[in-house]
Design brief:
Layout (H helix, E strand, L loop, with lengths): L1 H33 L1 H7 L13 H12 L8 H28 L5 H36 L3 H10 L11 H8 L1 H26 L10 H32 L3 H11 L4 H5 L3 H28 L1
Helix pairs in contact: 1-3, 1-4, 1-12, 2-9, 4-5, 5-6, 5-7, 5-8, 7-9, 8-9, 9-10, 9-12
Length: 300
């Protein structure tokens, strides 16, 4: 058991670290897009607002021209340090839910999906208490432009205040609780369907790869899409709160809708395509690494 935990930890660190480094520029641009109203109101990041500055291309060019290419990786050090703990908690919830379903002796897919959903929700809630302060550090770096040392010091000094290190925790819990249950249940559903499809192909005499890479990656991509479809509005609200809106969840949501002329979908899903552009490959890589590690453990 300790050896399995160690392999899970290392594989989670590697997959999480690689995904953070590869996708961090997208995350930085997305965070600034989400927090744009706060940036313009307080002048955060010292980029003067201008017409059309909230488009992805303009935000990208603004970051590079004002702060250099390396500014696109702001907040990556904090995320790389926290990703192993996050992955461990999530995968523990996923595994526990799956084992609970299997221990009931039921082969029904609905029972399995419910167990995975509950385990995912539990893991999502637990990791929120780890990731909320870490993401506050990341957002402070990306939006305000503070160094990792300065941002970390500021967050740590407010560890015992709700408006300090735990700013945005409520929105983080809403983003990471049920949506992570949806994430794992969607992954399990897609993986089962894809596996059954591959089995039918094999039975009809067509060759299939023994080392299936496509199934976990495709299922992971599907899971990311469905999960963020549920949780994205709370991610946007969380970023606004952590960037310094000074308001609660409902007030922040109202402000976002008002900025879109009273159109809830356009407002609360602003930047959604950019989020998927980052989340889909990260989820695909993460699940592929998890499945590969699990196979190597069981084969020994």
């Amino acid at each position: 058991m300790p050896e399995e935990a160690w392999v899970d930890f290392v594989s989670g660190w590697i997959s999480g670290g690689v995904s953070v480094l590869a996708c961090q520029p997208i995350d930085t641009v997305l965070t600034r897009m989400q927090a744009n109203a706060v940036i313009q109101s307080v002048g955060a990041g010292r980029i003067p607002p201008r017409p059309g500055s909230t488009t992805t291309a303009n935000l990208f060019r603004g970051m590079v021209s004002n702060f250099g290419v390396t500014s696109l990786w702001r907040g990556s050090s904090a995320m790389i340090g926290a990703v192993p703990v996050q992955n461990a908690l999530l995968m523990t919830g996923y595994g526990a839910g799956k084992r609970w379903s299997e221990s009931n002796g039921s082969d029904e897919s609905n029972t399995l999906l419910m167990g995975v959903f509950i385990g995912g929700c539990a893991g999502g809630v637990l990791q929120s208490f780890v990731m909320s302060p870490v993401e506050l550090i990341k957002v402070t770096q990306q939006v305000v432009g503070e160094s990792v040392t300065s941002a970390t010091t500021t967050v740590c000094q407010g560890i015992f205040t709700s408006n300090g290190a735990w700013k945005g925790l409520g929105a983080t819990l809403l983003r990471d609780g049920v949506p992570h249950g949806v994430w794992f249940a969607s992954y399990e559903y897609a993986k089962t369907e894809l596996t059954d499809y591959r089995s039918r192909i094999k039975n009809h005499g067509r060759e299939t790869d023994e080392h299936d890479v496509a199934t976990p990656m495709l299922a992971g991509a599907f899971a990311a899409t469905t999960a963020w479809g549920v949780g994205y509005p709370f991610d946007l609200i969380k970023t606004r709160i952590q960037a310094g809106s000074g308001k609660g969840i409902i007030s922040t949501a109202k402000d976002i809708v008002n900025e879109s002329s009273g159109r809830p979908f356009q407002g609360l899903y602003k930047g959604f395509s950019l989020k998927l552009f980052r989340a889909i490959p990260a989820s695909a890589i993460g699940f592929l690494t998890y499945e590969t590690a699990a196979k190597s453990l069981t084969s020994e």
